């Protein structure tokens, strides 16, 4: 059994300035709390927290983690309380103990949904403080080591849970040592026959294997020396579980699993990794497709190494892993390597490490959809109802699945949402409808003016963003219609020599407004603006009926309403057909003419005149007798939406510059989409509200002046 001074010695060896008194204090507290308790093995209960602390000090973890290991079962299994822990050990250790206790309460049942939910909770616990999981993993390692004392039923359940949940977590955290131990111990209880068979075979061939390892080591070592590559070579038996998996996946008996031994070369530099690889490939023929460069492309858990398999001297496959000492340390201890004591390391630095790792974890969560890779039963869909993304400052935010950068923007601040013009995810510009993925770092590109668009409602997922967009659109509509209302009312006032301000302050008018529940001037004006009341109706409140202009008295209201309707809907009079401006016209989607374009009309069946650019292919293909001469009515002004396609380099801030170029010409952007190409270019398409051809030309010129723009063209389909 491990003793307190063993733990203290280990900690002092890697962390000379460690607060050993804190560990002693935790020991005393735990010993008292667990006094009289025994484990199923008959040993004093205290042996368990001690062993857990021992495992963590082998991993060179910090003092709070070791203390937490000693205390981890006190709150759950004894009369000790979290308050006591906090009083004696401070809030940091209290939180760690609390985290481990909560995690222990999670029951991994067979129900997939429940399991998935538990999994999510684990991930969130990790996101809070990864040390909670490290303590929990060490706890599980010791429980697995002593599983023989459990009743058989429990053995299988615990082993299954370890195989399904804890070993993969250890793997994902890069703690290879722990993953291997957990897997092999699980296999022992889950497939006792197989485990025993492999164990027997392995023992039987021990001598033969050792001879083989010595041989290969010598061959490789000599060759490395010839090439001046300093290296340590280790040959080791692969762990049982991976041998079993190989047998399973290739449907072969043990005899035919040839590469049960893996060789590891530890060299001094990255350059030497590649040199050593070259030496090995020159010595033996590499197996095609088996070379993996995890140095250039580290695994999600941060693992780095070169892997290759070659055909060895006796025709057997030999696997080599080549890495530096640092990479090796990381491969064995993974995330735990970050908690190693390093002199002068700042808390912030540690936080930074934690942050980086959580990001990886979250990436991992999104990777879970690959069933071959991990936990068959837990599919991403089951528990990815939420995605977790980061702000540029590293803050973690949670969103429902399907959320977009707009949801992100609105969750931070309403104004940020309103002024969003684009977004970058992991440093790359993405379209606003991009669906956030766990682990993304999201940055919002802001414009100067708020410009939410109706289309945004279909882009956002969160109710908050929807509500804010709706609110803004309503407000904007109200502002617009109150402007129109004021204008209409002013015009009418002028005819009667009334001041609009006086009119609005008039008691009668105020009463009328209140009684019709438009209790502010603005509300009343906007009610006029969208045609709820006519200006004359308001005026008649203060002007006696017989003093109204005679022409106002009969059916006048309808024509006022008509005007309002005309103001609010797209003016039909934009194009004159045969000199008349009230014809029903529509604009061809194929060529989308703007005022100033040479145009021609085309009489449709039942939908009035369709207006096209003169040389539009669609018009040219029509029968001549249905074409009709049309002209722009330049006395009318109304915007037409034109699509402009811009090819640009994918560089920071360019979207904002393009948007500025468009709006600086007084044009409104009604919609935009962005596609990033593989070659670092981006294809943007802007739907711009254009008054006339001159404005369109100016907008296009202005866009062309933006640095990084490759081409600008007006889209005609
Ligand atoms: Mn425990």
List keywords for this structure.
717 residues, alpha+beta, four-stranded mixed beta sheet, 21 strands, 16% strand, elongated, binds manganese (II) ion
Describe how the helices and strands are arranged.
Layout: H1 4-14, H2 20-33, H3 47-58, H4 63-71, H5 74-77, H6 82-105, H7 112-128, H8 130-145, H9 152-172, H10 176-190, H11 192-204, H12 206-226, E1 231-237, H13 240-250, E2 261-267, H14 270-283, E3 285-286, E4 292-293, E5 306-311, E6 317-324, H15 325-333, H16 347-367, H17 380-383, E7 386-390, E8 396-400, H18 405-412, H19 414-418, E9 420-425, E10 428-430, E11 442-446, H20 456-459, H21 463-495, H22 500-505, H23 507-515, H24 521-529, H25 535-542, H26 556-568, E12 575-577, E13 585-587, E14 599-603, E15 609-613, H27 617-620, E16 627-628, E17 630-632, E18 640-649, H28 654-663, E19 668-676, E20 681-690, H29 693-704, E21 709-714
Parallel strand pairs: 2-6, 13-15
Antiparallel strand pairs: 1-2, 3-5, 4-5, 5-6, 7-8, 9-10, 9-11, 12-17, 14-15, 14-16, 18-20, 18-21, 19-20
The structure holds manganese (II) ion.
Number of helices, counting only DSSP H or I runs of 4 residues or more: 29
Termini distance? Answer: 80 Å
Assign an overall shape. elongated
Cα-atom radius of gyration: 37 Å
The residue-averaged pLDDT reads 80
Uncertain residue ranges: 339-384, 554-572
The helix content, as a percent range, equals 40-55%
Strand content: 15-25%
């Amino acid at each position: 059994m491990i003793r307190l001074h063993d733990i203290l010695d280990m900690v002092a060896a890697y962390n000379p300035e460690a607060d050993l008194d804190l560990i002693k204090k935790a020991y005393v507290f735990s010993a008292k709390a667990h006094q009289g308790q025994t484990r199923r093995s008959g040993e004093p209960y205290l042996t368990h927290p001690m062993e857990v602390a021992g495992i963590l000090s082998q991993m060179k973890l910090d003092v709070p983690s070791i203390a937490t290991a000693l205390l981890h079962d006190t709150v759950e299994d004894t009369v000790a309380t979290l308050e006591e822990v906090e009083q004696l050990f401070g809030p940091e250790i209290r939180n760690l103990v609390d985290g481990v206790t909560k995690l222990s309460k999670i029951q991994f049942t067979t129900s997939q949904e429940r399991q998935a939910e538990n999994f999510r909770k684990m991930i969130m616990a990790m996101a809070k403080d990864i040390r909670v999981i490290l303590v929990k993993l060490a706890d599980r390692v010791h429980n697995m080591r002593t599983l023989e004392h459990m009743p058989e039923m429990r053995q299988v359940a615990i082993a299954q849970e370890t195989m399904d949940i804890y070993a993969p977590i250890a793997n994902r955290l890069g703690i290879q040592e722990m993953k291997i131990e957990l897997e092999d111990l699980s296999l022992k209880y889950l497939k006792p026959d197989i485990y025993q068979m492999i164990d027997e075979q392995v023992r039987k061939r021990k001598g033969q294997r050792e001879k083989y390892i010595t041989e290969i080591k010598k061959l490789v070592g000599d060759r490395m020396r010839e090439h001046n590559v300093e290296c340590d070579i280790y040959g080791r038996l692969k762990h049982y579980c991976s041998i079993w998996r190989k047998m399973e996946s290739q449907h072969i008996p043990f005899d035919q699993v040839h590469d049960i031994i893996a060789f590891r070369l530890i060299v001094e530099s990255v350059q030497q990794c590649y040199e050593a690889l070259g030496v090995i490939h020159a010595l033996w023929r590499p197996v095609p497709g088996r070379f993996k460069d995890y140095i250039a492309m580290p695994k999600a858990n941060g693992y780095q190494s070169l892997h290759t398999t070659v055909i060895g001297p006796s025709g057997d496959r030999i696997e080599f892993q080549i890495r530096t000492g640092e990479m090796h340390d990381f491969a064995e201890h993974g995330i735990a390597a970050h908690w190693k004591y390093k002199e002068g390391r700042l808390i912030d630095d540690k936080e930074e490490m934690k942050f980086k790792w959580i990001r990886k974890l979250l990436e991992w969560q999104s990777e879970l959809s690959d069933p071959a890779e991990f936990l068959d039963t837990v599919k991403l869909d089951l528990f990815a109802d939420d995605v977790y993304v980061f702000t540029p400052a590293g803050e973690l935010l949670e969103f429902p699945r399907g959320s977009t950068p707009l949801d992100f923007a609105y969750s931070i601040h309403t104004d940020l949402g309103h002024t969003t013009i684009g977004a970058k995810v992991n440093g790359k510009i993405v379209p606003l409808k991009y669906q956030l993925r766990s682990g993304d770092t999201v940055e919002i590109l802001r414009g100067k003016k708020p410009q939410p668009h109706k289309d945004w409602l279909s882009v956002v997922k969160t109710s908050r963003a929807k509500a804010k967009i709706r609110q803004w659109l309503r407000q904007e509509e109200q502002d617009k219609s109150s402007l129109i209302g004021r204008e209409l009312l002013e015009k009418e006032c002028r005819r009667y020599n009334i001041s609009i301000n006086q009119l609005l302050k008039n008691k009668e008018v105020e009463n009328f407004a209140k009684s019709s529940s438009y209790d502010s001037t603005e509300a009343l004006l906007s009610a006029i603006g969208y045609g709820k009341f006519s200006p004359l109706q308001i005026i008649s409140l203060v002007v006696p009926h017989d003093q109204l202009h005679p022409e106002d008295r009969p059916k006048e209201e309808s024509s006022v309403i008509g005007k309002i309707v005309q103001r609010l809907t797209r003016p039909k009079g934009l194009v004159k057909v045969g000199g008349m401006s009230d014809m029903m016209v529509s604009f061809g989607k194929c060529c989308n003419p703007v005022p100033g374009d040479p145009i021609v009309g085309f009489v449709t069946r039942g939908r009035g005149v369709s207006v096209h650019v003169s040389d539009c292919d669609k018009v040219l293909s029509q029968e001549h007798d249905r074409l009709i001469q049309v002209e722009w009515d330049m006395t009318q002004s109304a915007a037409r939406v034109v699509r402009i396609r811009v090819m640009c380099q994918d560089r920071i801030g360019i979207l904002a510059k393009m948007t500025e170029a468009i709006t600086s010409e007084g044009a409104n952007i009604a919609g935009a989409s962005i596609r990033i190409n593989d070659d670092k270019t981006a294809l943007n398409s802007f739907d711009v509200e254009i008054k006339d051809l001159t404005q369109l030309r100016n907008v296009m010129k202005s866009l062309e002046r933006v640095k990084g723009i490759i081409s600008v063209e007006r889209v005609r389909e």
